[in-house]
Amino acid sequence: MANGDASVPGYRGLRGQILLEVKKSQPVTAKQLSSVFGVSANAIRRHLKELELAGLVRFGREQHGLGAPAFAYRLTDEGEALFPNGYRDALTELLEQVAERDGRGAVVRLFEERYAQLTRKLQSELAVAPHERRLEVVARIMTEAGYMADWSETGGAFRFAEHNCALRAVVQRFPEVCAAEEQFLKDVLGAEVERQAHIVSGCNACEYAISFGAASPVVVLTPRKTAAPDQRQP
Hints:
The protein is α+β, with helices and mostly antiparallel strands. Helices cover 47% and strands 16% of the residues. Strands 1-4-5-7-6 form a 5-stranded antiparallel β-sheet, covered by helices on one side. A hairpin with a 7-residue loop joins strand 2 and strand 3. The radius of gyration is 21 Å and the shape is globular.
């Protein structure tokens, strides 16, 4: 499994790791966190209490499986704000102006072209790379962009997940751009990609099932040609 080196501004050590794990796994119990980090549940609860006093986490009874409800933790709005949001307000305002002038399709095309540029940048590196290397590189790049991405493999089945939406406000206004991201993953991984969970639908992560075929070539993209300027004299 490959994970990006995500961090939480202002929080280091175990407390920062707890915030990351709550972000990825919420709702999560102190017992579950204890198992993840190999420390006592009481030690975890002390850290969670400090994070609660800081207004970053909250807890309540949550249903887990078939058992009785248990106390579990989630991030508050203040806790969510610790994670990258991709210059939310300024970018959303700018895209609203693009949509008003040129239509919503123009916004989607901006993202499609950005992802196409990224695919072209990576295609020489990943064209003959094994599946795991492709997933590792894409997870790293998406993590650097604020998505807290990782991947895993179980019995030949691959999963790619993004635990933070760096463009959440944009996606809520323009959900069409998520299709551009899904197409990017198909192109850059050379795989079939199926989204199985979506943050803007209330899930904890955007999760994709990845299926590599026998050849699984990375899609080779060429720059889009622009029309030649009109040379006619006025």
